[in-house]
Specification:
Number of helices: 3
Radius of gyration: 23 Å
Structural class: mainly beta
Oligomer: single chain
Number of strands: 15
Order of helices and strands: HEEHEEEEEEEEEEEHEE
Strand content: over 45%
Helix content: 10-25%
Shape: elongated
Length: 242
């Protein structure tokens, strides 16, 4: 009898500790290319499940009401930015989940914090977004720099040319390209290649693939870059010329 009582007491103590723990905390590194940055909410994750509910509604320029599935009000607030826009995905039964946020951020801000609170002000979640400097990316062909732009045609080059990717901050400071991945948009199977070239230099097989017009040459590109210390890394995915 005594042992059963101790077990029950221990379970109640453990439950109280669990209840006091923060509900959710996550951190994201987001590449900044303009004054508005986009944060994707990862699919099929605890964060997406947390931001599921009904009747999402904007309260003001920095607050969104995100009621739970059982209609309990929660408030998502950006502490030091504006929520320029938000998007949702439709779930079963008329419920929705938060898909992404467009955040308008001052150029001097290096991190923004998104906090969710209950109606009584209790903190339910906190999402920190570490921002890169405002970035521009280039294709370096020998000694010439061509800005990567999804609205302009792929620049001409030869297989023997030295070609690499350059990541430059708004201050003019060069960032380190950690790795990159060309994503063919005209070939279904090649999108799922696990070959991720290290650094920013394009290998001969990559140049051959771009120059091979018979297989289509529309690409997106994913670039991973870091600051000088290498402690912080960011990913960006964007069109790689038209």
């Amino acid at each position: 009898m005594k042992s059963a009582f101790l077990i029950l007491l221990g379970w109640l103590f453990y439950s109280s500790l669990v209840a006091q723990q923060p509900v959710l905390y996550q951190k994201f590194n987001v590449c900044r290319q303009s004054d508005t940055v986009h944060l994707n909410i990862p699919k099929r994750t605890p964060l997406q499940d947390f931001f599921s509910g009904v009747f999402f509604k904007r309260v003001d320029e920095s607050v969104i009401k995100v009621p739970t599935r059982n209609y309990k009000d929660r408030f998502l607030k950006c502490e030091n930015c504006e929520i320029a826009n938000y998007s949702v995905d439709l779930l079963n039964g008329g419920q929705v989940c938060l898909k992404g946020l467009d955040l308008r951020v001052e150029p001097t801000e290096k991190m923004v914090v998104l906090t969710t609170t209950s109606k009584s002000g209790e903190t339910l979640s906190q999402v920190s977004v570490l921002l890169s400097p405002k970035m521009t990316f280039y294709l370096k062909i020998n000694e010439s720099l061509v800005k990567i732009d999804g609205n302009t045609p792929m620049p001409d080059f030869l297989i023997e040319d030295e070609i690499s990717l350059v990541a430059r901050a708004e201050s003019g400071k060069m960032m380190n390209v950690v790795d990159h991945f060309l994503i063919p948009l005209d070939s279904f199977f090649e999108k799922y290649s696990n070959d991720t070239p290290v650094g920013g230099k394009l290998a001969d097989w990559e140049k051959s693939r771009i120059l091979d017009k018979t297989r289509g040459n529309r690409f997106a590109i994913r670039i991973t870059f870091s600051d000088a210390t290498g402690n912080n890394e960011w990913d960006v995915k964007m069109p790689f010329f038209k």
